[in-house]
Amino acid sequence: MTKTRKIFLSEKEMPTQWYNIQADMPNKMMPPLHPGTRQPLGPDDLAPLFPMELIKQEMATDTWIDIPEEVLDVYTLYRPSPLIRAYNFEKLLDTPAKIYYKNEGVSPAGSHKPNTAIAQAYYNKKEGVKYITTETGAGQWGSALSFAGSIFDIDIKVFMVKVSYEQKPYRKFMINTWGGDVVPSPSELTESGRQILAANPDSPGSLGIAISEAVEMAAKDPNTKYSLGSVLNHVLMHQTIIGLESLKQFEKTDDFPDVVIGPFGGGSNFAGISFPFIRENLVNGKNIRCVAVEPHSCPKLTKGQFQYDFGDTVGHTPLIAMFTLGHNFVPAQIHAGGLRYHGAGAIVSQLLKDKLIEAAAVEQLETFDAGVKFARTEGIIPAPETCHAIAQVVKEAEMAKKEGKSKTILFNFSGHGHFDLASYDKYLTGQLTNFSVSEEEIKKSLDEIASLR
Amino acid sequence: MTKTRKIFLSEKEMPTQWYNIQADMPNKMMPPLHPGTRQPLGPDDLAPLFPMELIKQEMATDTWIDIPEEVLDVYTLYRPSPLIRAYNFEKLLDTPAKIYYKNEGVSPAGSHKPNTAIAQAYYNKKEGVKYITTETGAGQWGSALSFAGSIFDIDIKVFMVKVSYEQKPYRKFMINTWGGDVVPSPSELTESGRQILAANPDSPGSLGIAISEAVEMAAKDPNTKYSLGSVLNHVLMHQTIIGLESLKQFEKTDDFPDVVIGPFGGGSNFAGISFPFIRENLVNGKNIRCVAVEPHSCPKLTKGQFQYDFGDTVGHTPLIAMFTLGHNFVPAQIHAGGLRYHGAGAIVSQLLKDKLIEAAAVEQLETFDAGVKFARTEGIIPAPETCHAIAQVVKEAEMAKKEGKSKTILFNFSGHGHFDLASYDKYLTGQLTNFSVSEEEIKKSLDEIASLR
After folding, report:
1. Per the CB < 8 Å rule, is B151 touching A377?
2. What pLDDT score does A181 carry?
3. Which of A355, A383, A378 is nearest to A291 (CA)?
4. Where exactly are the structural domains of chain B?
């Protein structure tokens, strides 16, 4: 065998610091505002929800933050993750492009989410926290935090969007297997939940509602903190281990990415793979395109507005300056549940505003088409979220073919699709469609948050 | 970090030959017999079912068989698999024993099964075969062959035990995603299926019936061959890549196994990890214990009889000299579907008869107890089959503690439990029980095959 598919790092080669892009951004983000006073948040405002070390990280200006020994140790349960050259997929696409993917599906929870779940559980544990609440949509985040809770012996309570709770029992079982507790949201356990249920007893729930419940429960109990799986600065920073490893792995090849691609929900996996490469552009004069890929039907980056908005439905979270469709926007029922969110993290939004990253939108059917092609050549079955990145890879590869130019593409294989096979079945049997969202819908939703501008 | 959890091999370090234990066995197996004539089988008898190269391997006497370049290339989609030191699990068990596991769950299909599926699909393709039939119980084997079929462009038809087909739709979807076709068995597509349905239209099916259907369909069509996922010599040999890699990986540590443990269904994963270590005993004077672990409720190794028996229900397969409970034995509805089989492969049976391996039986509840403990410390959730090995590991580790002696344990993590989480849910909510099988039941089933002795 002359070719090598998988580029491994040894555990000793694993990066020992996270990269904090806030230090290198030419324009800093606008400050998060208190939901009540609308004044810039101080650390004390966040103290009821987060341990102090994470609040410090949220506001940190250092370029590099040491990863604690204990976190590195737990990372080695599955990290470093392999960087893989997708030779078979390249051949199918008949493209001169070289395609590499970083396989974050190797974690016990099956996605990149444990990279921050482990860090967050560790810092909470260190500060004596016994309980953590969180929300989950399709279940990737809830299971990742539950896994981390089992390692650090912290009780995890997950508010799971009710419709997903009913449709995806396996994610619930997974959370339980790691000892976590799952409640369908809206629930009777919180004021927020009771309010929603009073208005609509059959509410299917939403990520925004589940966040409201989890935040409320944490805020009311001094022994309980809250944890979020995306959007926030410290969460995105924990994920940079993905891109930092990739950089080291490319040193072992003769290639270097021209394009870096990640699916985009709140920003965590995209940030994870791309921020270290954006640093190469900002600090080392490189010219790497970084492309965030969102669903056509939830187009906050390509059609949303940059302004202050809430992260949740009820309005418990701080106001964040971000690309948003409005916190009342209800995304279509696409199967990539992790991408059904109205807003984008503050850092990623600022980077997009400053044209330091690109955004692209793809249709549901082309994502599954790309996912099936990938599975039938590379073996591994991608999550519907990951299929968004792959659909964009196909476009880039076809462009390379048209231009007759080789280029190197890196994408984040954010997770496997083992719990999403029902959506593959629907695709293969012709039961899936694309979803469109009209300009009017978006305008209406944005008008509703006009007062927050 | 001073310790290393995961021992990797590079792709270039991957073994390039399979190990054929037939060459080193002190007592050779008894020959398989034709189901009609009861005379020893010749290659021509197998030609309707298998490509000639696999028939040669089935009867090979060479110690080492070259792995074709094309097979090695596909192996690198996921191989070499990591050898992992289970530090966290050791700590929980408070044992002086060192516990290592070989993670075969990293394959696209989630188990060790692709190791032979890829080889079988390759040899079939090389001899011009367009269609392959097979059977599957819980779905591990059917999905592995379907994955291999997608890589080598061969149409796969899977007869899936009807009760599993209905209970485990995700395995069906997975097979379809790779382009394979699945039919619930018994079906109307074969004489065997129609016979069973005529007698019992509501038959839930069984592995034995599904084998009968798949064999019949292949035998009747010259363009179609049949493929089996365990039991046969060539299948077990393809799996030796597991143990051969492990040997190379242990060279990179200061440890060497005193005990090697694998769950036992038909023999393929157990053989895969243990045969290269048995060679160390036979050829290099080592003294490694190799333990096959079966369910208490399907105790062919610990309570079965060594004699000729059929591999299927209807009696289409050759007669094999093996430890068996009788081909009419119906195992209890344990969740480790891959271990619900009445017989053991010929080689493994001969090795047990010659006391070159050990057998142990464990109860369903202790397997899930071990599996949950493993998941909560090591992260990864094991398949119910794999939990059988882990339950035995717990016993060995406790013995080491009692004796105050360190020893090194290696077990085969044959697959992950992502599609078995419903059984974890049942376990965690107290809905699972142990199953016993009485001496009378076993005697009755063995009496029914008295004429085959």
Report:
1. yes
2. 98
3. A355
4. 69-110+234-434
| Residues in chain B within 8 Å Cβ distance of A422 | 169-170, 173
The pLDDT of residue A346 is 96
Reported in sequence order, the residue ranges of A207-348 that DSSP labels E, i.e. its strands, are 224-226, 259-263, 289-295, 305-310, 319-324
Show the low-confidence residues of chain A (pLDDT under 50).
none
Q: Please list every residue in chain B whose beta carbon sits closer than 8 Å to the beta carbon of residue A381.
A: 108, 174, 177
Render pLDDT for B133-188 as a digit per residue (tens, 0 to 9): 999 988 999 999 999 999 999 999 999 999 889 988 999 999 999 999 999 999 99
Minimal Cβ distance to B376: which of A1, A150, A377: A150
- Angstrom distance (rounded) from CA A88 to CA A95: 11
Query: Would you place residue B64 in the very low, low, confident or very high pLDDT band (cuts 50, 70, 90)?
Result: very high
pLDDT in tens, B27-58: 999 999 999 999 999 999 999 999 999 999 99
Measured CA to CA, the distance from residue A326 to residue A308 in angstroms comes to 9
B69-110+234-434 maps to CATH 3.40.50.1100: yes
**Interface-testing mutation among A2, A381, A428, with chain B (most B C-beta atoms within 10 A):** A381
Secondary structure element (H or E) that encloses residue A237, with its range: helix A233-238
Taking one residue from A and the other from B, the number of pairs with CB-CB distance under 8 angstroms is 135
Q: Using CA atoms, how far apart are residues A301 and B376, in angstroms rounded to an integer?
A: 38
Is this prediction's ipTM beyond 0.85? yes
CB-CB contact of B81 with B106 (8 Å)? yes
Residues in chain A with CB shorter than 8 Å from the CB of B169 are 421-422, 425
In this structure, the number of other CB atoms found within 10 A of the CB of residue B161 comes to: 27
A76 closest CB neighbour out of B5, B178, B377: B5
